[in-house]
User: What shape does this take?
Amino acid sequence: MKLLALASVAVALSLPMGAVQAQSSGTAKKPAATKKAPAKAPAKKTVKAAPKKRVPSKTAKAVESVTPVQTLTQRLTDAEVAIAQHVHTGKIQCELGADVTVTPDDKNPGFFRVSTGKQNYYMHPVESRTGAIRMEDNRQGAMWLQLGNKSMLLNQKLGQRVADECATPTQREFAAQMQANPQSSLLDSK
Assistant: This one.
């Protein structure tokens, strides 16, 4: 019992002592914070650009004289030149009152200027696996696709059709023949 009484007295004495310590530590003044001087930005080093070395004109002319110049048409394969012969040209009417004008480039056979509204493209034929006539403008990301019954102008960068359901009289005639004589489907049973 004496132990219990001693323990309770020790606990009682320790509480006020801890409370006093807590009060005194809370009111104790902290040392004043010292202000640090702002860090200086490192000095910028000025680097002078190296002067561009120019090729002497005599050297440039010598290189140009022995370098073969390849025209745009020479860059096309024989198959691409053959495809170019089947491209429909002229003003082609499309759906919603739009039209596309396909004009061959006289200076570079096999190349075409395709325009609609304010958009102008410089296209060349590209071989396709399906046999459809396909022309592309790689710089602007445009493609002209010519099928038997219609043509369309696509902007691959934007992922949208610029003009659809474009058809020349020859394509309209082909579409009418397709409707009059539809081909049987592989899934149709006989």
Observations:
- The chain is about 30% helix and 25% strand.
- Residues 72-180 form a domain with the Lipocalin fold (CATH 2.40.128).
- The mean pLDDT is 77.
